[in-house]
Amino acid sequence: MASRTNDRRARIEQMRKAEQARERRSRIITISISAVVVAGLVGFGLFALNKESDKKDQEAAAAKAPVTGEKTWDAKKLGRTHVTKAVTYPMKPPVGGDHDQAWMNCNGDVYKEAIPDRNAVHSLEHGAVWVTYNDKAPAGDVTKLGEKVKKTPYSLMSPVKDQSGAIMLSAWGKQVTVDSADDPRVDQFFTKYVQGAQTPEPGAACTNGVAGE
């Protein structure tokens, strides 16, 4: 009787030890998996942070680098008076000067028809980039540029038939003619001048202005 009791106790003890061993293995597996998951999340987080940091560094570098072929006008000599009469601008499209008291909506607005210069200049004063094109611009480029503008607050786009270049980008006191929608100067110009340092009135509205066609 005592022998059977001892055997039963021994089996129970073996079972208890086996259960403890299984629990230890489960804990080790759980901890290991958790460590791998955490390490993966940390690694992904560091990768994302590094990628975002690289993007910001690239944008900062683009903002400092000169835009090849860019024309610049002295911002201090560009008038900023609100007028109701016609204005003759010395450049086409205009990059600054006296303008209408109402701005063109420039919250990624793409206009299919020509817009008034005086209203567009007011948009530039608020820090917008104005993309313009004439009949020589390829339809594919016009479509690509329109898509970019639609995704970019403080930008607008419209046709200007009598401008010298097929595709031109303007900001307050700044202008460049580019070869195509894929010209790297397009992104550089946007990065540098959308609400850029040249903006006379940073943060001013680009909505609730004049809406064209």
UniProtKB/TrEMBL annotation:
<keyword id="KW-1133">Transmembrane helix</keyword>
<dbReference type="Pfam" id="PF11303">
    <property type="entry name" value="DUF3105"/>
</dbReference>
<keyword id="KW-0472">Membrane</keyword>
<keyword id="KW-0812">Transmembrane</keyword>
<feature type="region of interest" description="Disordered">
    <location>
        <begin position="1"/>
        <end position="23"/>
    </location>
</feature>
<dbReference type="InterPro" id="IPR021454">
    <property type="entry name" value="DUF3105"/>
</dbReference>
<protein>
    <recommendedName>
        <fullName>DUF3105 domain-containing protein</fullName>
    </recommendedName>
</protein>
<feature type="transmembrane region" description="Helical">
    <location>
        <begin position="28"/>
        <end position="49"/>
    </location>
</feature>
